[in-house]
C-alpha cells in the first residue's frame, strides 16, 4: 500500500471545469476503453467534490479510506469530500462518472439532493451492486444526462437537475435496501444532523456542548437522544470520528504523531497518544506498525 512521504501533504483535488461548458460545479466523465489520468495513481488524496461512477468494466483496485475495492463490472461506486482515495492500478476503463461540488448541492433547485441517503451516506458505504434491471435504468439515465450535458440552452440546467435527481433518488433507494437503513424518525434525524456536524467540525470541536449549540438544543437533550437511539454516549460519536481520521492519516501518510495530533485539534501530542490508546487499546505508533505490516 502506497503512503505519502513525510514531506508530502495529503492533496485535495478540485473538480476540473468541464472543457466544453466551463461548468466548475458539475461535470460528466466518460471512459470508453481509455486510460484515466496517471496523476492520481498511487497518491492518497481527497477530492473536494462528490463522485458517483458507474463501472462497466475495470477490474482494477482502489482504496476508499482503509478499505480496498476491486472494481466490479456493472457496479456503482461513490465517494464524498471527506474520504481518502488511492488508485492502486492503472488500466483501461469503461465507465461514466458524475462529479458535483457542495456548491452545486447548495443551489436552490438542487437543495433536496443533499438530503438523499446516497449523498449523506450514513452507513459509510461506497459500492452498490446492481441487478440487470438496475443496470438498464442507470444506463438510460446516464445517456440522458450525457445528452443534456451536450445540449446547451435555456432548459439545459433544469433537465440536468431532473435527470440527476431521478438517478440519485433511484440509487438512494438501492442504497437503503442494500445497507438496510430503516425509517428515519425525528430522533434519528437529530443523530444524522449531529453526525453531519461532527464531520464538518471534528477538528475544532471536541465537546458535546459545542454541537448542541450548533443544533440549537441543550447538551442534555442531545446526549439523551443520542444515547437512546444509538446506544452510545454523544461524546463517543465525536471520539470515533477523531479516531477514524487519525487512522486515515496514520495509514496513508508519514506525518509524525505530533503533526497528526495538531491536525486533529489536540494541542498536546502526548494527550493525543493517550486518547488514541484509550479509544482503541493500542498506541498510534502500534496501530501504524500493525496496519502497514498487514497491507504491505
UniProtKB/TrEMBL annotation:
Pfam families: HTH_18
Highest taxon of source: Bacteria
Chain ranges of the HTH araC/xylS-type domain: 192-290
InterPro entries (UniProt xref): Homeodomain-like_sf (IPR009057), HTH_AraC (IPR018060), Tscrpt_reg_AraC-type_HTH (IPR020449)
GO MF terms held by the record: DNA-binding transcription factor activity; sequence-specific DNA binding
Record SMART domains: HTH_ARAC
Keyword line: DNA-binding, Transcription, Transcription regulation
PANTHER family, alphabetized: ARAC-FAMILY TRANSCRIPTIONAL REGULATOR, TRANSCRIPTIONAL REGULATORY PROTEIN
Identification of the protein by name: AraC family transcriptional regulator
Species, as recorded: Chitinophaga agrisoli
Amino acid at each position: 500500500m502506497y503512503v505519502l512521504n513525510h514531506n508530502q501533504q495529503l492533496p485535495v483535488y478540485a473538480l476540473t471545469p468541464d472543457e466544453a461548458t466551463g461548468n466548475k460545479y458539475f461535470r460528466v466523465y466518460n471512459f470508453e476503453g481509455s486510460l484515466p489520468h496517471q496523476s492520481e495513481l498511487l497518491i492518497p488524496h481527497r477530492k473536494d467534490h462528490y463522485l458517483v461512477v458507474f463501472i462497466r468494466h475495470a477490474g482494477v483496485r482502489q482504496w476508499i479510506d482503509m478499505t480496498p475495492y476491486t472494481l466490479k463490472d456493472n457496479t456503482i461506486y461513490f465517494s464524498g469530500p471527506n474520504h481518502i482515495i488511492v488508485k492502486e492500478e492503472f488500466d483501461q476503463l469503461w465507465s461514466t462518472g458524475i462529479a458535483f461540488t457542495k456548491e452545486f448541492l447548495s443551489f436552490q433547485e438542487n437543495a433536496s439532493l443533499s438530503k438523499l441517503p446516497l449523498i449523506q451516506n450514513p452507513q459509510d458505504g461506497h459500492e452498490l451492486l446492481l441487478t440487470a434491471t438496475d443496470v438498464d435504468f442507470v444506463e438510460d439515465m446516464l445517456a440522458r444526462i450525457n445528452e443534456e450535458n451536450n445540449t446547451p440552452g435555456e432548459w439545459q440546467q433544469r433537465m440536468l437537475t431532473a435527470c440527476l435527481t431521478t438517478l440519485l433518488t433511484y440509487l438512494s433507494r438501492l442504497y437503503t435496501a442494500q445497507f438496510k437503513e430503516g425509517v428515519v424518525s425525528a430522533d434519528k434525524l437529530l443523530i444524522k444532523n449531529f453526525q453531519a456536524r461532527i464531520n464538518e467540525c471534528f477538528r475544532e470541536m471536541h465537546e458535546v456542548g459545542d454541537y448542541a449549540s450548533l443544533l440549537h438544543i441543550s447538551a442534555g437533550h442531545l446526549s439523551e437522544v443520542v444515547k437512546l437511539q444509538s446506544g452510545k454516549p454523544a461524546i463517543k460519536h465525536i471520539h470515533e470520528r477523531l479516531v477514524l481520521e487519525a487512522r486515515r492519516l496514520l495509514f496513508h501518510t508519514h506525518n509524525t504523531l505530533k503533526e497528526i495530533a495538531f491536525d486533529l485539534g489536540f494541542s498536546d501530542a502526548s494527550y493525543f497518544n493517550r486518547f488514541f490508546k484509550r479509544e482503541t487499546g493500542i498506541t498510534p505508533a502500534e496501530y501504524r506498525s500493525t496496519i502497514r505490516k498487514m497491507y504491505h
